Amino acid sequence: MKIGWTVLLADYFGQAGTPRYTDIRDMARRAEAAGFDSIWLYDHLLYRSTGGDTNGIWECWTILAALAEATERVELGTLVICNSFRNPALLAKMAITLDEVSNGRFILGVGAGWNQPEYDAFGIPFDHLVDRFEEALQIIRPLLKEGRVNFKGSYYQATDCEILPSGPRSSGPPLLIGSFGPRMMRLTAQHADLWNTAYLHRPGSLTEPRAQLHAACADVGRDPATLDVTALVALGYPGATSPKSRTSTLTAARKTLRPCYGTMP
User: Fold this and answer.
1) For 27-66, what is each residue's pLDDT tens digit?
2) Nearest CA among 6, 14, 178 for reference residue 81
3) With the CA atoms of 103, 264, 182 and 6 taken in that order, what torsion angle do they form, in degrees rounded to the nearest 10?
């Protein structure tokens, strides 16, 4: 079992403010020094309430690239990159380049997206998210694993696309998909090296989603033992009574568990 740390990029509660990069870098280095196996970043453009209040967040990939240089040992991953924000062929190119910068420590986690206010604010289409994601995977995975693809769909095209030079790993960085629901589970079973089902509140809450994943693997003829399972668990500490202290302690405690599939209870 591997244990990772989700690095804070945003002002979730509007109390402590958005952390500066120097604080983010310090947190990542402390996590590495403490023996964590991985560091994870999430991908949003803004958080906006129904009342119109906006909470700040830094752009994920820029911070991730900086942390690849600022750290030496820990794996670096995204939980998860929003497919709609970047062209899929360009994203694969970025992923292989980041794998080079990090010397083979990167895990590309991707998802279909869900937070409509940021789409609206940045002028990004919010329609057919899973259709777009399905097409994107048919570009991203071949480019990561084989270095080239020729694809034409309704939303994305990659004509005789090739990624050169290749990164430090012949099979490219691992592809993680964050998913739930039958269709997304099937796409995970078809394309992913790892799977994440977002927040869990207790170990037993993984049982049903994992059963759904097994069913999706059976539908596509895949051995589920070849698909690593990850879990994102939010932890809180007693004694965090004020809003500001709750923010800091919950942030500090957000951990990503990346166990091998066979070691799951």
Assistant:
1) 999 999 999 999 999 999 998 888 888 888 999 999 999 9
2) 178
3) -50
